[in-house]
Amino acid sequence: MTRDTLRRRSAITAEVRAFFTEGGYLETETPLLAPGLIPESAIEVFQTRYRNPYRRGRDLFLIPSPELWMKRLIAAGWGDIFQISRAFRNAESLGGLHNPEFTILEYYTLGADYLASIEVTEELFRRLLSRGHSTLPDPAPLSPPFRRMTMAEAFREFAGFDLAPCGTGELTEQARKLGIRTGEADDWETAFNRIFVDRVEPALPRDRPLVLLDYPREVRCLAREIPGTPWRERWELYLGGIETANCFSEETDPEKVAAYFRVEEELKARSLTPHPPDRRFLSLYRDGFPSCSGVAVGFDRLVMAFLGIPRIQGVILFPFSDILEE
Questions:
Q1: Facing residues of 123 across strands?
Q2: Is the pTM of this model over 0.85?
Q3: Which residues make Cβ contacts (< 8 Å) with residue 138, sequence separation at least 6?
Q4: CATH node for 3-146+208-325
Q5: Rounded to whole angstroms, how far apart are CA atoms 204 and 197?
Q6: Please, what sign has the CA dihedral across residues 210, 213, 216, 222?
Q7: What pLDDT, in 10s, does the model give residues 251-266?
Q8: 108: which residues sit within 8 A by CB, 6+ positions away?
Q9: Which strands, in side-by-side order, build the sheet including 81-88?
Q10: Domain locations along the chain
């Protein structure tokens, strides 16, 4: 990372803060350590231990997202909030798109759904472009309005079949027809991910920002289901083919949140670093969690896109890959 890149990154950070503050969002600063987390079986975490000569020690975990703490504030009535925070994910690859310690921009809009959050994100991009924060000679790959494509449309166009009616067996068979290796123990989500990563994601349009929306209900997450359909109110934003943001219409049903915890806890128990779930998180939903939509943006990838830098090592100081070589 050069000094000029750091200066430009700092300017983008300041502009993002100004955008949300002027829009009535309250900036929060929440802990990086937690004794329990939201169980996510696909994410490996970093573990440490608190030691004190006068009280019992306790295992703690570096957060993979500030969601855990920010939703406590939402439940307490704090309104629209945002945060630019450090986050941590263990067992990440050290290629050009990942670093185990990274920066995340997360914002929650009360009374909004996932479609309204697209508009908020488009306005953020317009602000950054209008203030001269992109160094790209052609701003089209960053310019709103974002292209929108449903997951069903993407599978029909790039994998050649209709995703909606496929059970596990049918999905596994479609993968085999495409020449994608599958495992006997593959469940629906695993088979879906194999096809998506191999055929769909590499073929997504790159000429302007792409919102890939309406994710399958079988892909477990805390996004609200679209009634009467096999889809959830979720989107991911791709910039130049790189997944950069993730958005939900947040689930508010306490029974569905508890069911998600049960399944993810069972799967998480098989991981390398099992950790206790945050039981207080479940209590946030018992008395009525506010309707809202949340967006999590990989801030380092956002900076990469606006500055035309192809590797994450070019937009962060002291990348982990360099630290390991010291």
A1: none
A2: yes
A3: none
A4: 3.30.930.10
A5: 11
A6: positive
A7: 999 999 999 998 888 7
A8: 70, 71, 74, 80, 81, 82, 250, 292, 293, 294, 295
A9: 26-27, 81-88, 101-110, 292-298, 242-249, 231-239, 210-216, 147-150
A10: 3-146+208-325
